[in-house]
């Protein structure tokens, strides 16, 4: 997705240890028009990949919410965001899976209410980053726990050098990314289109 | 906003102690089309209230992100979400303010990077709920700390019986809400339009 790649080239900063700072349009500040375009691009690429009949988008709070919302908008389906802390409105008997915490270190629990994820659902996972793949694996676990069908995975930025794509191969679904970071060395951030489907 | 009020009437549940369960379209699952309509309605009502020249929308993670994103989309401006845990990409020297935690009890710190909030900014605050008003007061504090101008406050659902509106009167800006819960007793949830501006 050219507009996204341009934005990463302009604003992305390598903070070292594999950390890419893109908080001007992903993790802290959002560009609403760019985020809507991300959703449209996910919908387009999933269609190209033959992923159809989606009934629900699932993501994890916090940074997945914006691109998941716009993907749900493009597909015309509800969006579910797994919670990391249980709100007082969430009943017991939720599905739970463990994912790494990007802010606190260690692990954090992802929780989804069975009210909003059903065995007949055909689900795609959307998240901001695909790095180690562990958060997405936890979301896939939640989808599986409720007996729904996982149909695809979409991430805004894939850090290919962390090899999450290979780790998620066992899920046997298309994995779409809108920009691929191949390497980050000093000021040099190598970013390219994902080649798995026709790009705009 | 009629579609929202209908949704609250159909799906809202009184969990007691002033807690309204609306996690089918606000706090856990999102209806993307309804959320886009919320953003348009905020933009329309702020315009009616004479609030113009907005340069930025600010909210707090987690549940404020979706309606803030669609409001930023309607206004064509960036959206900033205050973080509750400091991501590794967030530098030191951030603005901080304390707000009540709705999931953990006690207080939580809201953090905003000075990179994305500037003295020349004209800001509106968007959040999912206006209850005690303390989270919105904390966001207003962040806006003030950076020297920006607070121009308006918008909340999706106002629980008028918690009197947050009166507590925020000192800010002297229009407060727009899309639905007002006047009371909740047993199964009876009294919800109405906010009368401060022309509604659709």
UniProtKB/TrEMBL annotation, chains A, B:
Q: Which GO molecular-function terms appear in the entry?
A: xanthine phosphoribosyltransferase activity
Where is the protein situated, by its record's location annotation?
Cytoplasm
Q: Name one GO cellular component term.
A: cytoplasm
Report the catalytic activity. Answer: XMP + diphosphate = xanthine + 5-phospho-alpha-D-ribose 1-diphosphate
List each copy of the Phosphoribosyltransferase domain by range.
76-161
User: For xanthine, which residues are the binding ones?
Assistant: 20, 27, 159
Q: What is its main location?
A: cytoplasm
UniProt: 5-phospho-alpha-D-ribose 1-diphosphate binding residues: 131-135
**Looking at its record, which EC class is this enzyme?**
transferase
One of the protein's GO biological processes: purine ribonucleoside salvage
Question: Which keywords does this Swiss-Prot/TrEMBL entry list?
Answer: Cytoplasm, Glycosyltransferase, Purine salvage, Transferase
The pathway that the record names for this protein is: Purine metabolism; XMP biosynthesis via salvage pathway; XMP from xanthine: step 1/1
Identify the EC number(s).
2.4.2.22
Role: Converts the preformed base xanthine, a product of nucleic acid breakdown, to xanthosine 5'-monophosphate (XMP), so it can be reused for RNA or DNA synthesis.
Q: Which family does it belong to?
A: Belongs to the purine/pyrimidine phosphoribosyltransferase family. Xpt subfamily.
Q: How does it assemble?
A: Homodimer.
What name goes with this protein? Xanthine phosphoribosyltransferase
């Amino acid at each position: 997705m050219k507009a996204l790649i341009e934005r990463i080239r302009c604003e992305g900063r390598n903070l070292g240890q594999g950390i890419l700072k893109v908080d001007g349009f992903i993790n802290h500040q959002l560009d609403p028009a760019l985020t809507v375009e991300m959703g449209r691009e996910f919908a387009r690429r999933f269609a190209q990949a033959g992923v159809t009949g989606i009934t629900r988008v699932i993501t994890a709070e916090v940074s997945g919410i914006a691109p998941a919302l716009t993907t749900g908008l493009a597909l015309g389906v509800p969006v579910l965001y797994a919670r990391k802390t249980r709100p007082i409105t969430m009943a017991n008997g939720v599905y739970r899976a463990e994912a790494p915490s990007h802010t606190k270190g260690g692990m954090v629990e992802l929780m989804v209410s069975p009210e909003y994820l059903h065995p007949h659902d055909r689900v795609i996972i959307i998240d901001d980053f695909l790095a180690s793949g562990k958060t997405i694996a936890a979301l896939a676990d939640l989808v599986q726990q409720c007996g729904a069908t996982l149909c695809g995975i979409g991430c805004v930025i894939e850090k290919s050098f962390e090899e999450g794509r290979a780790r998620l191969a066992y899920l046997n679904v298309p994995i779409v990314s809108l920009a691929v970071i191949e390497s980050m060395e000093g000021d040099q951030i190598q970013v390219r289109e994902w080649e798995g489907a026709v790009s705009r």
